Amino acid sequence: MLRIHFTSEDLVRTRISTTWGPLGETFFGLMTLQQPNAGAMFGGWRRRANDESVAPAHPASELFREAALDLFTVTGQAESVDAGLEALRAASADHLQAELISAVESRARYWDRTTPWAGTAWGDPAHDRGDRRELVDFLADFHRVAVAPYWPRIEARLRAEHTGHARTFAEHGVEAMLAGLPPGFRWRSPVLEIGRGPVVGDVKLDGRGLLLVPSAFCRTRAMTYNSLVDDQSPVILFMPVVRTVSDAAALLTVPGSGTLKRLVALLGRTRAHALDAIGHGPCTTGQLAERLAASPATASEHATVLREAGLIATTRHGSAVLHALTPLGEALLNGESTPSGRGV
User: Fold this and answer.
1) What is the pLDDT of residues 275-303, one digit of tens each?
2) Which residues contact 327 (CB under 8 A, 6 or more apart)?
3) How many CB atoms lie within 10 A of CB 251?
């Protein structure tokens, strides 16, 4: 668990942004690509990224393995990937070197890891122009394959997330916004808790405030990022917007592949929507009816068909039944042919 401590001044300075931009999502994409526990929601996307990019074999991938390196404040928020990459090219050697040193310190502070960091074994992007250029080219290649095809839908989803929280902020104040953050975030004034389990870190904002930024590919354990060259800028905290298999399927199905259309063609529009609704989280028949704006009898009929097809499982809890996706249902929503890529 990470705990972020607020003062009254921090609350005044806390804001929520729309996105860090496509390069920020590229950074997180490289982190997610190397996380073995991200397969359930990102399995199809990971296979495509592994097959079509140089990331699996490129040693620069190690820079992003443990989410310790902060290139976010090096590049700043950038509306286009080109603008972000240009900021990385132009970053001072001292700034980038400081972030590399800080990454080693963060590994020890957050995860008690004192073993050599593989990220430091590849080149010297801080001082060597050739290595800096190779890092920029590597990021551009990965972005082209793993983020660019999905960016319009990702950006729309991030804007929708921002709009909802910003409305709460405007109508009810910053503490209401913090209290309304997604699962995994708990506001216990004056502390924001992220994650579960033992405390791995305490962050005191010290008057800088917090900048919340939605992210599609952020799947790392909670970490804050703050500029090493501007001690007045807010501390940055990214929060994931992909929370279910259906979230991932909606954003990360290859445009033009026809996966979503095939799902409708295979199941029928309403049953495809029923499968997607269950993908947002296990639900009772009554809850499914609400999600579909249908009668309980109709929802029950669709659940029966999906269960008989092996796409959902139904268990009884007291007087109610609970529907949840099976691995096959998850794979279908994630644009995969079989669960976890296995043959039948």
Assistant:
1) 877 877 788 998 888 777 677 888 899 99
2) 339, 340
3) 21
Which DSSP helix (H) or strand (E) runs through 44? Answer: helix 39-52
pLDDT in tens, 316-338: 877 778 998 888 888 777 665 44
Cβ-based neighbour number of residue 309 at 10 Å = 16
Exposure of 301 in the CB half-sphere (CA atoms within 13 A): 9
pTM, entire model? 0.73
Residue 260's pLDDT band, with cuts at 50, 70 and 90, is: low
C-alpha separations of 181 from 16, 118, 185, 232 in Å: 11, 34, 6, 25
Instruction: Report the distance separating Cα 194 and Cα 315, nearest Å.
Output: 31
DSSP element (H, E) containing 82: helix 81-90
Which tokens hold the place of 315? 């268990």
How far is 187 from 250, CA to CA, in rounded Å?
29
What's the CA dihedral at 150, 155, 157, 162 to 10 degrees? 160
pLDDT tens-digit map of 3-44:
999 999 999 999 999 999 999 999 999 999 988 666 667 888
Neighbours of 105 (CB within 10 A): 10
Q: Which amino acid is at 130?
A: G
Q: What is the dihedral of CA 107, 248, 84, 82, to 10 degrees?
A: 140
